[in-house]
Amino acid sequence: MSKTPDINGQDVSDIRTPKLRVVEYALLLKPRVMSLVVFTAWTGLMMAPGHIDPFTAFVAILCIAVAAGASGAINMWYDRDIDNIMIRTQNRPLPAGTLKPFEALGFGVFLSFASVSIMAIVVNTAAAGWLAMTIIYYVLIYTIWLKRRTPQNIVIGGAAGAFPPMIGWIAVTGAVEPNAWILFMIIFLWTPPHTWALALYRSDDYRAAGIPMMPIVVGHTKTAIQMLIYTAILVPVTLLPSLLGISGRVYLTAAIMLGVGFLRHAFIVLKDDDIQKARKMFFYSIFYLFMIFVFLLIDKSLMTLFPSVFS
Fold first, then answer.
1. Distances 80 to 58, 75, 199, 301 between C-alpha atoms, Å
2. Backbone dihedral region of 196: left (phi > 0), alpha (psi from -120 to 50 degrees) or beta?
3. Which of 48, 82, 199, 256 could form a disulfide with 169 if both were Cys (CB 3.0 to 4.6 A apart)?
4. What is the pLDDT of residues 119-143, one digit of tens each?
5. Do 238 and 291 touch, CB atoms closer than 8 A?
6. Pairwise CA distance, residues 50 & 248, whole Å
7. How confident is the model at residue 304 (pLDDT cuts 50, 70, 90)?
8. What CA–CA distance (Å, rounded) separates 38 from 121?
9. Residues 160/142, Cβ–Cβ less than 8 Å
10. pLDDT band at 19, cuts 50/70/90?
11. How many CB atoms are located within 10 Å of the residue 26 CB?
């Protein structure tokens, strides 16, 4: 990083105000990813049968958010070499040189232990155990083992991102129940088409960094076929909450409409190798998952307030 001397010849590029350092540490937590994690975890907590007091619910969601951020910080520490190569990630704190590697690692490890410990003390040990497993899964299995070795990295490793709604559910019930696995499966099946859409229009980045993402290994067409397959499996799975009585007709209608839109994008990406089509599918996929969970909450509220109408 270039040096910027002041009028006295002192390097001021290394002088970081406390406010700036707070921002840098916040960026280590991958706040955009964390926001989706928090929302899906909150949905799992609200969908679970039983009661949880507001304070315990707040602590549970806070711990899940902090654990997600901790995983992101450790991920940035390990991936700092490839983050320095990829245009999309060059402005992250470590490749930009605004934080030291040991700061990121220490921050991530501290937050990992803190989030799991507080979850065990305040919420329940089952939720804490699954939270610990999620961190370990993301860091060891996805980041360290799979990401740089196989094009199936996101398929297997993507399970880490699917655990938060289950943990929210477990925070209420104290145990894993079959219906919680439906929320897990929705995110698990959504992750490959979502991530491969990103990989299609950012393929130059991944190729330069030597990451074997699916488009780099098998090309556009075969990747698009797999994206369509996963999307075609995902859409019926999103209908299960209504078919099994967890949600009602409002959610069912929304899931069908959103699913048709997702399938349409998958077909377009298969027919047209323009990377802008993949880019549009990537952004739609974020909207899609967000709205699926929004309508789960809306339907739950309607069924609670007006059971005779919406149940």
1. 33, 8, 19, 43
2. alpha
3. 48
4. 999 999 999 999 999 999 999 999 9
5. no
6. 19
7. confident
8. 20
9. yes
10. low
11. 13
